[in-house]
Amino acid sequence: MPSQRHLDLGRLTAEIERCRACPRLVRWREEVARRKRRAYLGQAYWGRPVPGFGDPAGPLLVLGLAPGAHGANRTGQMFTGDASGDFLYAALHRAGLASQPCSTGRGDGLTLRGAFVTNAIRCVPPGNRPAPGELRRCAPFLERELGALGPRAVLALGAVAWRAALDALAAVGHPVPRPLPRFAHGAELILGGAPALVGSYHVSQQNTRTGRLTAAAFDAVLARAASLAGPG
To answer: Between the CA of residue 68 and those of 36, 84, 122, 211, what are the distances in Å?
Structure first.
């Protein structure tokens, strides 16, 4: 029989997938799905909001920014089908949190153990820049995920995810300090009774190809977040 956690996440997934609350994002995600990238012309794009993915009982929540235009917006699975996902899942695999080091699409056999992956915003935004109002409209999805999952640590990938995590923690009743702690790679916020928050540079190619974020540096911050999360 499904647990209450699975039922809550199932309902949330259904709501996310049918959301049309942000007209600009709806237009863009569907335009990308129609136009496609040449390498994927023969594929059917997902072109809808992307729900979270992973182990519902996992104590670690990995929070990114938004689906990739030709990654998750194509495959329908968080961080799947592009270079950012390749970097992230390889690291999760090295940490023993993923069953395989890469993912190409839904149903390819990837499973996560002890971790759940989601984004601050569920639709691909133009220029990878969601508007403040779009982030606010999407925020209740993250708040409900926090409630359903009950993670013990959150690894926020980038400044937008860091702020989204702080806002979500405050919204569900945790005493987040004011002024809000600033994002930095390796930054930590540990509050009694709340999930620990750890910051990392985003796993985008803008950071990984330039050397701003190396595999070793990400492995270290992931290990710290996993240590704060504790055993699954």
So the answer is: 12, 8, 10, 20
Q: What was the pLDDT predicted at 193? A: 87
The DSSP call for residue 39 is: G
Q: Which domains does the chain have, with CATH numbers?
A: 4-229 (3.40.470.10)
Decide: 76 and 106 in contact? Cβ < 8 Å.
Answer: yes
Contacts of 9 (CB under 8 A, 6+ apart): 52, 56, 145, 148, 149
Structure token pair of residue 94: 């090295």
* Closest-CA residue to 44 (of 106, 101, 102): 106
Token pair in block for residue 44: 């059917």
Nearest residue to 141 via CA among 232, 229, 97, 130: 130
- What letter would DSSP give residue 186? T
0.70 cut: is pTM over it? yes
* Strands annotated E in 120-213: 153-157, 188-189, 196-200
Alpha carbon distance 100, 40 (integer Å):
23
Cα separation, 181 vs 166, in Å, equals 9
For residues 12 and 141, is the Cβ–Cβ distance under 8 A? Answer: yes
Average pLDDT of every residue of the chain: 95
Interval 131-141: pLDDT, tens: 999 999 999 99
CA 217 to chain centre: 19
